[in-house]
């Protein structure tokens, strides 16, 4: 049982070693795929944006991706294998490519796909089976292709399709579009070659269409003979109705649900237009009449005032009227009198020089008068329009405002006054518009804002003052704006922010100060930090300051911004930042420092912002990324450090960014040597961090590799391949285990013999030159055989024959190591007499003595060993001493059992061995005495 147990244990060891070997070998042969996707940016392993002139669909995109944007590439064909590894896809954008063919079955795996863009490609025909597999697709864009025909079963799989855009193609009819899309709600077919519309071409039964766009088709014939559009609400016919169109709608109830009608740009007589309008009943709420060639005033009068045309019921329910882009110069006072339900009136892009009096008699909520020629606003222009919520007056030459112009707009929420040449506000917002939430004053000529200029705007949330000529922000400028959340002051001429300028903006979340002239001459603290009272500010834009290169930001410039999350400090020509700059922004989440002139970053600059997740420091002349080692940015997810001057990325830097998911190093030139060996392997093998556009990284050093791609460089000689080491180590472990098992089983005693033979050799080398022998013979025996040695051997050899014998109990030197005594005794004697018995063979020290003596025998090739056997020991028990056994078989020997009658002869032969020296090794004789036990 012990032997069986031992064998089983050995087998288990060998089996385990083989398993480790297989695993390591597997890893070595099949390395883990890295996180490098050519030309693609992968974010959070779910979104892929690939815009790098790709010619084929990239195969490296992870299967976990649900959103892919491949627009703007050079892909010309989609085959069955292109998307076979992307089963989780929900959104696919293949627009703006050169796709002319899609093989049948390309999308069979994309059963989860919801939205697909194939616009701006070169598809000529929609073939049967092209969209097989897209059973859950709800939105399909095929705009701007060259589609001429639609095969009958093209959309057979698209049973859940709700939105289809076939605009700007070459379709001549609408056949085969609605037959397999029962849930289609929006159908856009603008700018095709459709001149005849037959309802039977679309479907033989009612559809669920809500929106139908036939604009820009130049219709000559429109026939609706069945009520297939019971749910249609929006009908777009702009630029489609030609002069002389045949309009046949057999029953006006067929369009009873249409509430939005766009017939802009009609090229028809008033009678033809009347036919179109008569088909729409009183449900019409939105009417768009842009680019009408007829006299608009006549049209309005005909539509809304002439009873014989029976149009009054149409106008009384109208809620939105768009009269834009019609070259209107004036509108009569009663033009909108009949439109009692009108809520939105758009008269933009006309030639009005003043606010029409007609708008005062309406109950509109939204008025758009932008892009006209209104050069002044009077105090009564908006009289009694208390219900107005949205007013657009931008792109009019207003020049200046009056304090009374908005006096009645007590419920106004949005006021748009940009691009109006305004240089003075004149107190327009000191008393009026208490409910205003959005005020846009961008791109005007404002130079100064008076104290309390906006004090009446307690509800204002967004104030846009960019692209003006403001030079200074003073205390009290924004008094009253206690609810303001967003303030835009971009592209002014601000050089100074005085103490208290932002003191009343306690709710401010976003402040944009880009493209101004804010400057400081020193890093030293300033007495009045500009943002000291903006404790709730979340986002600060302070990039693009037009400043001398010597200017700096004071170390307490950001003091007070305790809740700041995002800051942009790009393109400011900064050469350095004080190490304490971000001490005041502990909650900073995103930092943009790109396009400055940093050569180095202070090691502890980012230490106070441990929550940082996105860091942008591209194009700043950085020579190293070692500053990141001291930053402890353990939450950093995105690092953008492209277009700098460093060429080596070290292992400690990357390992310090434990949460990094996206790394942008575009535009750097790398050293393609062993300095970057670890980084190269990391780029290929790491699964967490995507290194954007790594396939295009180029070598700058050494010169012979300049211009080569980094990922093409072989640096295996620089790195320690742990897989290969594991493979070799495991192989060696397996071989050693097998060898140990085999040796233990079959060669145990041979190893023991070799060990002692080596010890003998070492002692022989030490003592072989010591000179004359001190003894005639050293007697090696077991203590159990001491009686025979002292009673028989010792008297015969010493007393009668004059031998000088060495006995361990008598002649060994006290205090000397036993092994050294044994060796000295053997090499100090002419002969070694081994008294062999069974006890002798089991003795450790006797075994060592005979090993040393045996080595001397074979080393010196002299007759130095005499074996005296006290017992008849079978030959197989001498197996550990295989050299001795071989000599016994080859050499002459004397047997004591055969010398019983002549013992004196035996002792005489033994005496002769005392001085006998053979002429050659073959003359060696070993005297063996087999004595009775």
Automatic annotation (TrEMBL):
Keywords (A to Z) from UniProt: Glycoprotein, Immunity, Inflammatory response, Innate immunity, Leucine-rich repeat, Membrane, Receptor, Repeat, Signal, Transmembrane, Transmembrane helix
Domain of life: Eukaryota
UniProt family annotation: Belongs to the Toll-like receptor family.
Predominant cellular place of this UniProt entry's protein: membrane
GO cellular component, one term: plasma membrane
Protein name per its UniProtKB record: TIR domain-containing protein
Any one GO molecular-function label of the UniProt entry: signaling receptor activity
Annotated InterPro entries: Cys-rich_flank_reg_C (IPR000483), Leu-rich_rpt (IPR001611), Leu-rich_rpt_typical-subtyp (IPR003591), LRR_dom_sf (IPR032675), TIR_dom (IPR000157), Toll_tir_struct_dom_sf (IPR035897)
């Amino acid at each position: 049982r012990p032997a069986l147990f031992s064998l089983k244990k050995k087998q288990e060891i060998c089996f385990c070693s083989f398993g480790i070997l297989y695993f390591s070998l597997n890893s070595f042969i099949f390395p883990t795929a890295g996180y490098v996707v050519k030309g693609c940016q992968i974010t959070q392993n779910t979104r892929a944006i690939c815009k790098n002139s790709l010619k084929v669909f990239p195969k490296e995109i992870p299967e976990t991706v649900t959103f892919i944007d491949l627009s703007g590439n050079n892909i010309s064909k989609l085959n069955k294998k292109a998307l076979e590894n992307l089963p989780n896809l929900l959104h696919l954008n293949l627009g703006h490519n050169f796709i002319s063919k899609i093989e049948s079955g390309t999308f069979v795996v994309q059963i989860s796909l919801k939205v697909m863009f194939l616009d701006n490609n070169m598809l000529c025909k929609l073939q049967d089976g092209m969209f097989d597999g897209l059973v859950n697709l709800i939105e399909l864009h095929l705009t701007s292709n060259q589609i001429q025909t639609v095969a009958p079963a093209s959309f057979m799989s698209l049973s859940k399709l709700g939105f289809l855009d076939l605009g700007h193609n070459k379709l001549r009819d609408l056949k085969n579009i609605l037959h397999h899309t029962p849930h289609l709600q929006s159908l856009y077919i603008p700018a095709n070659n459709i001149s005849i519309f037959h309802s039977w071409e679309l479907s033989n039964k009612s559809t669920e269409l809500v929106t139908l766009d036939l604009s820009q088709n130049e219709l000559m014939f429109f026939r609706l003979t069945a009520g297939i559009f019971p749910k249609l609400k929006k009908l777009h016919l702009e630029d489609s109705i030609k002069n002389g169109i045949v309009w046949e709608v057999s029953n006006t109830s067929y369009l009873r649900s249409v509430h939005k009608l766009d017939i802009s740009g009609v090229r028809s007589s008033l009678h033809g237009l009347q036919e179109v309008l008569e088909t729409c009943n009183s449900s019409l709420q939105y009417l768009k009449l842009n680019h009408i060639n007829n006299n608009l005033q006549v049209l309005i009068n005909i539509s809304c005032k002439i009873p014989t045309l029976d149009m009054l019921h149409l106008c009384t329910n109208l809620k939105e009227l768009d009269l834009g882009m019609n070259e209107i110069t004036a509108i009569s006072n009663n033009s909108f009198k009949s439109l009692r339900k009108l809520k939105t009136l758009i008269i933009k892009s006309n030639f009005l020089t003043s606010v029409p009096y007609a708008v005062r008699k309406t109950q509109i909520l939204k008025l758009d008068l932008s892009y006209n020629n209104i050069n002044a606003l009077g105090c009564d222009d908006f009289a009694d329009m208390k219900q107005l919520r949205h007013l657009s007056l931008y792109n009019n030459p207003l020049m200046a405002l009056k304090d009374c112009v908005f006096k009645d707009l007590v419920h106004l929420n949005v006021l748009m006054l940009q691009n109006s040449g305004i240089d003075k506000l004149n107190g327009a917002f000191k008393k009026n518009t208490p409910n205003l939430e959005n005020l846009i004053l961008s791109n005007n000529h404002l130079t100064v804002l008076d104290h309390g200029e906006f004090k009446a705007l307690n509800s204002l949330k967004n104030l846009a003052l960019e692209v003006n000529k403001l030079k200074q922000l003073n205390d009290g400028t924004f008094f009253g704006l206690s609810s303001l959340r967003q303030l835009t002051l971009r592209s002014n001429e601000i050089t100074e922010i005085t103490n208290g300028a932002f003191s009343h903006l306690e709710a401010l979340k976003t402040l944009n100060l880009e493209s101004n002239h804010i400057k400081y001459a020193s890093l030293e603290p300033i007495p009045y930090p500009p943002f000291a009272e903006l404790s709730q500010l979340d986002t600060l834009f302070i990039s693009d300051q037009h400043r001398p290169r010597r200017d700096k930001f004071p170390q307490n410039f950001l003091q007070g911004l305790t809740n700041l999350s995002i800051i942009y400090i790009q393109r400011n020509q900064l050469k350095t930042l004080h190490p304490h700059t971000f001490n005041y922004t502990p909650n900073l989440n995103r930092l943009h420092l790109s396009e400055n002139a940093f050569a180095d970053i202070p090691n502890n600059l980012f230490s106070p912002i441990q929550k940082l997740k996105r860091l942008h420091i591209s194009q700043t002349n950085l020579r190293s990324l070692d500053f990141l080692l001291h930053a402890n940015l353990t939450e950093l997810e995105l690092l953008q450090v492209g277009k700098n001057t460093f060429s080596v990325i070290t292992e400690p830097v990357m390992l310090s960014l434990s949460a990094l998911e996206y790394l942008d190093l575009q535009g750097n030139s790398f050293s393609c040597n062993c300095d970057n060996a670890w980084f190269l392997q990391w780029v290929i093998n790491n699964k967490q961090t995507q290194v954007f556009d790594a396939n295009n990284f180029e070598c700058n050093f050494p010169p012979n590799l300049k211009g080569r791609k980094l990922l093409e460089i072989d640096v295996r000689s620089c790195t320690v391949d742990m897989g290969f080491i594991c493979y070799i180590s495991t192989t060696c472990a397996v071989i050693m285990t097998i060898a140990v098992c085999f040796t233990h089983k079959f060669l145990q005693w041979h190893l023991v013999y070799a060990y002692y033979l080596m010890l003998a050799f070492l002692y022989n080398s030490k003592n072989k030159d010591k000179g004359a022998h001190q003894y005639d013979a050293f007697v090696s025996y077991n203590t159990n055989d001491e009686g025979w040695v002292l009673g028989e051997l010792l008297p015969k050899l010493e007393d009668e024959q004059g031998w000088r014998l060495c006995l361990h109990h008598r002649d060994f030197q006290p205090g000397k190591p036993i092994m050294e005594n044994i060796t000295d005794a053997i090499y100090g004697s002419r002969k070694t007499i081994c008294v062999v018995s069974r006890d002798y063979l089991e003795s450790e020290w006797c075994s060592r003595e005979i090993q040393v003596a045996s080595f001397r025998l074979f080393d010196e090739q002299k007759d130095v060993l005499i074996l005296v056997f006290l017992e008849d020991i079978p030959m197989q028990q001498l197996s550990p001493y295989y050299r001795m056994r071989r000599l016994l078989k080859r050499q002459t020997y004397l047997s004591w059992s055969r010398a019983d009658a002549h013992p004196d002869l035996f002792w005489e032969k033994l005496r002769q061995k005392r001085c006998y020296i053979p002429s050659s090794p073959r003359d060696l004789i070993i005297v063996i005495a087999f004595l009775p036990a």
